[in-house]
Structures are given as C-alpha cells and as structure tokens.
Write a structure and sequence with these properties.
The chain has about 400 residues and is mostly helical. The chain is about 65% helix and about 0% strand. GO terms for molecular function: acyltransferase activity, transferring groups other than amino-acyl groups.
Amino acid sequence: MSVSGMDQSERLHGLDALRAGALLLGVVLHASLSFFPQQIWIVADDSRSIGAAWLFFTIHLFRMTAFFLIAGLFAHMMLARRGWVGFAKDRAMRIAGPLAAFWFPVMAGIVTALVWNAHANGLVTPGAPPPPPPTYDWTNFPLTHLWFLWVLTLFYAAVMILRAVLVWVDREGRLGSVADRITGALIGPWTPVVLAAPLALALWLDPKWIAFFAVPTPDAGVIPHTSALVGFGLAFGLGFMLDRRRDLLGRIARWSPLFLIVAAISGVAAYVLAGGPNIAPMTAQTGAKALAAAVTALAVYASALAAMGLCLRFLSGHSPVRRYLSDASYWVYIVHLPLVMLAQVWVQDWAGPWGLKLAGVSLGVFAVCLVSYELLIRHGFMGRWLNGRRVPWRNKPTPALVPAE
C-alpha cells in the first residue's frame, strides 16, 4: 500500500523501522564517544579520529528528535484504540515501569565500568580510601540514557491533562477540525523552518547550551532543560497531530529529498559553527550564538523529517527482519550502555584503527543484546511487558512415524 493510501488501521512499517533505527543507533552513538580526538567521555581510546566526532554529530542531530516524532504519532494511535484508561495503564507499565525496574541495574553496570576503567588507567591508588560518593537531588539525579523514558512519561501526562481540558472546554468537538487544518498548513517544504524558530530561540536563551550536542539530552535532573522540552516536545506534538492526518505522511515522504538536502547543508554548517567537537558552552547571547542556534535547529528538524519521509518511501513494506529488530530495539537500548562502556574499557589499549574497534564494540554489544533478547525476553513474560506481546517458541514439527518392520 502506498503511503498516501494508508488508513488508521494500517501498520506503519516504515515508522516502526525508524523508531527501531533511532534506538539501535544509540549503540553506535555511545560507542563512538571513546574515539573522539579529545577526551569528552570517561573512556578514552588510544586510537582516535575526527571521524568519530562527525559520526556522533550526524547521528545525534536527528536521532532522538525523530524518535519523539514517531512516539507522538504512536501515542495518538494508542489513545484512539484503547481510550484514556487503557492508554494510561499501558504507558505506566511499558514506559514508567522499565524506567523504575532497570535504572538501578543499569546504573550498577555503569559504575562497574567506571571502576574498571579507573583501575585500568592507574587512577586508583592501592590502599587509599575511596573518594566520597556523589550527592544527588532532583536537580542532578542521573537518569543515564534512560532519560527518554522519563521525558516520555512527562509528555504522556501532559497530553492527557491537555486533552482532558480541551474536551471539557470544547464539548462540540470543533477544535479538532481547526487543529487538523493547522497541521495541514504546517506540513510542506517550510516545515523545518517553522519548527526551528522556537527551538532556535530556546537554544539562544540557554546559557549552558553546547552547540556540538544540538538539542541537549536531559539525562540529569527530573526537570528537563527548556530547550530539550521545546525541541523534543515540538516533535512529539507534531507526531501526535499527524496521526489525525495520516494523509500528510505522503506529503512528508514526497518532500523528503528536499529535507535531506537542507539537513546536509545546515548540518555541515552547524558542525562548523559549533567548532567541531567543542564542549565549551555558548554562554553569551551573541549574534554568533543566534546564528549557530538557528542553523542547528533547522538541521535538527530537517534531518528528522528527512529520516521519516525516507523510511515511509522505502521501508513501508513488511519485513520479518525489520520487525524482529523493531521488537528487539527497546531491550537493546535499555541494556546497551553498560555493555558499551565495558567493551570500551576492554579494547582501549588494543592496537588497530578506530573504525575497526568501533565496529567491534558496536557489533559485539549488538550480539550480546540480541542473544539475550531472544533467550530471555522475546518468548517470555518480559516480551509481553516490554513489547506488548509474547512471541511463543516455534513448535517443533512432530516426527514422522516410521512403521515397524
């Protein structure tokens, strides 16, 4: 079925693929950090290259914005199918539940990698007392890479509250048609520019904004940065409204080549304006910061929309492999970061080109995650918990009876 012909009951395989790709690319993204020319990560490999910084920047530019765009669309879809009570129960179980259940083991794995790295690099003096543990409160609580579950939970709560207010105010349901017309007017070659304006302002006003990291990931503290709420919130909201206007997905797919060109040009410009892998924040609200914020915001949305459109154009058919990876991607992302860090510590002193080591770390972590998913998650209660369904083991064929001679 063509993109333009999709209805509300049609499974959006292309968007499933994009969501899975956004999560799975997190493995490569985090694995690349140890190969940067300068150390910005706990683990610093002996083999480093500017290519790792370019790879990180390219993935980071669109990945989570595209993810929240898809999350918003699927949120509206689930609301329409299950209603408010069913939606709230499902999101509490499959989003808030994994955050609560996996945060501690994930954090324990990260601490293990940090301790091993400290010993491996001679940062621990034998017999010396350990350093005092860090203190945390609501402003710096370490959400780690699971921050997206917390932000999703906040967005879901905001959607339910806002929708309840609108239903109470608009008893005749007229606002829905107005919102649909606004969404239709928003989608076109101008969409990245319109979305970029509020994000650029938020980035320009942020005194801690690091241009190289584009939209800052709110991985510390229970109240996300304003720029993160704006950047990811706009994507989530647009996706939410797009599910009401599935016909507009075809328009995004048609404009995807233009979005890709804009993303490539603005992305390169954003990297240059950021000064490459420079982690110094732009504190002053200067003209240079305004330009960097505007170009970066444009690149963020153009690349996310390009990824969405291209997946709709080329990955909308059913694929058992893509469906399997889509199911596995949630588990892979939850458990990958401690494994990536442990692998980085293990190979940091090995001889060899950075690209080969990065591929080894990424593929090794993928293998461990996928094997554990197949053996421990997919076919049991964990599969139903994380993916909403449990895939039964294939029944072995009954052996043919051989008549006795």
